[in-house]
Amino acid sequence: MKIILLLIGHFMGDFLFQNNTIAREKQINTTFFLLHCLIYSICLLPFCALYGTVGEIALTFVIIAFSHGVIDGIKIAIHRDRSIALYLLDQLLHIIVIFLIGYQISSPNLLGSYINQFLLQQIPQIPPLKIGAALLCYLICSTPAGVTIRFVLSKVHITKKADNAESGDYQEFEVEPADKKLDNGFLIGVLERFCILTLAILGQFTAISFVIAAKSLARIKKLEDEDFAEKYLVGTFLSVLIAVGCGCMFSLLTA
Fold first, then answer.
1. Shortest CA distance to 221 belongs to which of 152, 163, 182, 169?
2. pTM, entire model
3. Computed over its alpha carbons, how large is the radius of gyration of the chain?
4. Cα–Cα distance between 162 and 183 in angstroms, integer?
5. To bridge 61 with a disulfide, which of 48, 54, 153, 176 should be the other Cys (CB 3.0-4.6 Å)?
6. How far is CA 78 from the centre of its chain?
7. DSSP letters of the chain?
8. Averaging pLDDT over each range in 73-82, 91-100, 226-235, which range is the top one?
9. 129 and 254 in contact (C-beta within 8 Å)?
10. Do residues 188 and 165 lie in contact, with contact meaning Cβ atoms separated by under 8 Å?
11. Would you give the end-to-end CA distance of the chain in angstroms?
């Protein structure tokens, strides 16, 4: 549970509360880079405070927050216009640090125990572990997944760009993959993944095909454009893979 909570804090700070301006300007402006680190730290701190002694809380917070700044700083120094490999490596390193530190943290402290008991009293039929795992999975399927898909597809070579927001999640965006503007396409992608994740959690994998079919029907005429169709298929497969993967992760975490 402690690692799940730290991951929630990470994805909130690195995606949910990082707008496109910060993501773009932190590449060239130290003030925005420090602002991102501050926002990340604020998102992380409440989750660090639930486990361990005061000393362990302080050490966990400092190591994760500091390492996040170091990894991001190295990433920017290496290449501002990141490749897919560098983007994935960046996230992998952040997650590895969280896992390594999370395993060293002791049991819940007084605050963590109180919140755990509160959840058990308010929602007795659902264990807190399932609530935390569900929050993490739905969080990943929202902004982090949408941003990742847009970033990957911005690197996909096609001869003709898709038209505006009608391309769903799958339109190009600016320097950094952090444009969370709620255009129709981005929102459709989030809702699509939420539906697929919910079906995966319920074990209704065959019903996922209906979600994909409904989305494809809305774009059936645009699929006649070969360039759009290729990018659409790549984006859709990525979206489904992330959502189903999160469903499987939920099952493993709560088994």
1. 163
2. 0.83
3. 19
4. 15
5. 48
6. 23
7. -HHHHHHHHHHIIIIIT--HHHHHHTTT-HHHHHHHHHHHHHHHHHHHTTBS-HHHHHHHHHHHHHHHHHHHHHHHHH-SS--HHHHHHHHHHHHHHHHHHHTT--SB-HHHHHHHHHHHHHSTTS-HHHHHHHHHHHHHHTHHHHHHHHHHHHTS--SSPPPGGGGTT-----SSS------HHHHHHHHHHHHHHHHHHTT-GGGHHHHHHHHHHTTTTGGGSHHHHHHHHHHHHHHHHHHHHHHHHHHHHH-
8. 91-100
9. yes
10. no
11. 13
For residue 102, give the nearest of 77, 67, 74, 70 by alpha carbon: 67
Nearest alpha carbon to residue 194 among 153, 152, 109, 134: 134
Q: Among 67, 90, 77, which Cα is nearest to 144's?
A: 90
A 10 A CB-CB count for 59 gives 16
38-67 pLDDT, tens digit each: 999 999 999 998 888 888 889 999 999 999
Question: Would you say residue 79 has pLDDT above 60?
Answer: yes
The pLDDT score that the predictor gives to residue 141 is 95
* Segment 159-213, tens digit of pLDDT: 444 444 333 443 333 333 334 444 677 888 899 999 999 999 988 888 888 888 8
Rounded mean pLDDT of the chain?
83
CB 236 within 8 A of CB 212: yes
Q: Which two tokens stand for residue 224?
A: 């006649």
- Report the pLDDT averaged over residues 138-152: 91
